[in-house]
Amino acid sequence: MAIMRNFERIENIKKKVVKKFTSKNIDKQCDTWINYLENELSFPFKASIQESEGLYLYVGDVVNVKKIVGFEDFYGVLLEVRKGRKKYVFPLCDIEVVEKQSKNRFIIEAFIEWWTDEYI
To answer: Does pTM surpass 0.85?
Structure first.
């Protein structure tokens, strides 16, 4: 039952953002998502690394996500994250929010689903 409610929350977030699209242009749609993420996510929050090329951060590392720092076509939304005192830029699509039932987790999962379906 909780899984279904979580799925519904994610779908509702995606629908809410997609309704705000004013263009079929993928870059403009990404801008809408970034605006939504900046306004709705609560920073800082803890996340675990889900995918990594392993230079400095590794799968399973827990980082503090500080803010959105930009967008790049290949990686998508980029975040400033910290591990200890070190600061890194890391793709939003390669993290998972640690707190399982947080609003941030559902928002990020909604974005990742949209990103995967539309952009990749």
So the answer is: yes
